[in-house]
Amino acid sequence: MTLMEPAADRKRHGKHYTPLDLADFLATRTLSRLGASDRLTILDPACGDGELLLAAHRAAVALELDAELELVGYDLDPIAVTIARERAAAAGVPVQIEQADFLTASRNLGAHAVDAVITNPPYVRTQQLGQEFAQKLASEFGLQGRVDLTHPFVAIMPKILRPGGILGLLCSNRFMTTKAGVNVRRILQTDLTPVEVFDLGDTRLFDAAVLPAIVIAANERDTGGLDCPFSSAYEKSEAVPHAGLSLFSALVAETDSTVSHDGRAIAVKVGRLAHSSTPTDPWRLAHASGDTWLSSIESATWKTFGDIAKIRVGIKTTADAVFIGKNWESRSPQPEAELLLPLITHDDVAAWRVGEMKSMKVLYPYDLRKPKRTLVDMREYPGAMSYLESHAERLKGRKYVIEGGRQWYEIWVPQRPADWAAPKIVFPDISVAAQFALDESGAIVNGDCYWISVTDIGSQELALLMLAVANSSLGQRYYDEVCGNKLYAGRRRWMTQYVARLPLPFPDSDATRDLVAAARELVRCADPEPGLLRTVDTLVEAAFAAGEGSAPPPSEGTLF
Ligand SMILES: C[S@@+](CC[C@H](N)C(=O)[O-])C[C@H]1O[C@@H](n2cnc3c(N)ncnc32)[C@H](O)[C@@H]1O
């Protein structure tokens, strides 16, 4: 950040300015794709303090582009516009910067008038945009699902770039893998053609809560599907190398490397954007060794987690301070104990077992015998009702609950009340290593975890096999190969769409049977035999190596 302003304001307008070295990298990758021309028009539609326009000028000089540059910028923020103009004047770089909302101003730009766009567009989520504005953007720009302010900026690009013109886009890497990211993936892979992709992971190249990515794309249609260089950079917990490539050189090198950056070891993986013909597929870095391994596992896969059962998120109250807590006895008025139910949160879950629960309870006003959400008769719970009334202002402020035809004192996503009693697999949404546990306590699961009901799975043995694969080294490698991105400090986000892809080996091999027995021991005893975890790793490998039909015929019938 170069301007001093409150964090809330930054969030609302998506202002996180690009640091110089990253701006230079983005500008160089973008401009080096432009062919010879007498004149080049380069646009930053949300230019902030002008760093990307200045970087474009530096890159044009460094690349010895023999062209007259027309650098054009827009920004909503008048202070940023003034600063950008002053910085450009001080650097002797001619620019035209207009204070305007680019989403409106772009209508006056000629079609296909621009040779290159270099942009770090505002990143503002639907919650901050407001539902109404998000819907307006969706219909105007043909977007779907949860719209982010980045989406309309990207949607405009094919209209304003000349044929063959280049987009250099710096944005959150989330679009590559999330459902909502389909808006950006669709434009980038259907209207444009990606020519280089960089997932900058937790390199901290960028001072924002989001992890950044760069996509360089050409304004041309390539019907051949995705296939371009793709590199990723994530911190690795190992000794920092003393010498070697800089991070930016490693990102464009031919082979993988580990580099030192800001005193940390960063693993740079170099491959290609995995081929996909539909934007609903997430973007994945494909590389030779990983691809061979993945296809060997896939050919030994019986079913995936998603084939077996639905993966559900835990409850979402949208007013946790009212519904969730530890010391209910100190609250007044006091809700009745029958409605205060044990709650599993991410703090309680370890691999295999839910640990000692931290006495967190949720006020859950639903009938636990009913498969569908059914409120209890609150007249029978006067304590709980007075407690909820004492928080009425806060709870009634959740307009979407009331507009959804619900009572103002309801939990937003309570899930199916009758399912809690059955055993379930539970795992936290974010953790460094896999933490899939079997819970047999009947507790409710909080929204910071996911769960899979053993009733849906259909057999406890199969649930144990799922735990064994998910918690194994093979499971983790598979997850990393298909998902490919992490959060800061090596933490993984266990997203349902990737957990659903985790593979299960064919059930009728000796290795699978032994694996289920080992998993049973691991979920039952707090202090399992040392070495059992290594045994699980070995057995998971063996179960997949056994493959289809290569195992001896089952002695006691098929396992599931
Ligand atoms: C992420 S910052 C990027 C600034 C600059 N391009 C950089 O990389 O340093 C996004 C910028 O978008 C601006 N902005 C937000 N909404 C805008 C809009 N509708 N039209 C133009 N600029 C907008 C903000 O004021 C902010 O300066």
Write a compact overview of the structure shown.
The chain has 560 residues and is of the alpha/beta class. It is built from 22 helices and 24 strands.
Notes on the structure:
The structure is a single chain. By secondary structure, the protein is an alpha/beta fold. The strands form five sheets. Strands 1, 2, 3, 4, 5, 6, 7, 8, 9, 10 and 11 form an eleven-stranded mixed beta sheet that branches. The protein has a five-stranded mixed beta sheet with strand order 13-22-18-20-16. α4 links the parallel β2 (about 70-75) and β3. The protein has three domains: about 5-225, Vaccinia Virus protein VP39 (Rossmann fold); about 290-310 and about 460-560, no CATH class; about 310-435, no CATH class. The model is unreliable at about 1-5 and about 550-555 (pLDDT under 50). The chain is globular, with a radius of gyration of 27 Å. The longest helix is centred in the last third of the chain and has 15 residues, at about 510-525. Helices cover about 35% and strands about 20% of the residues. S-adenosylmethionine binds near residues 15, 17 and 80.
Number of structurally distinct domains: 3
Helix content: 25-40%
Q: Please indicate the percent range of residues in DSSP E strands (runs of 2 or more).
A: 15-25%
How far apart the termini lie comes to 57 Å
Please tally the helical runs, counting DSSP H or I stretches of 4 or more residues: 22
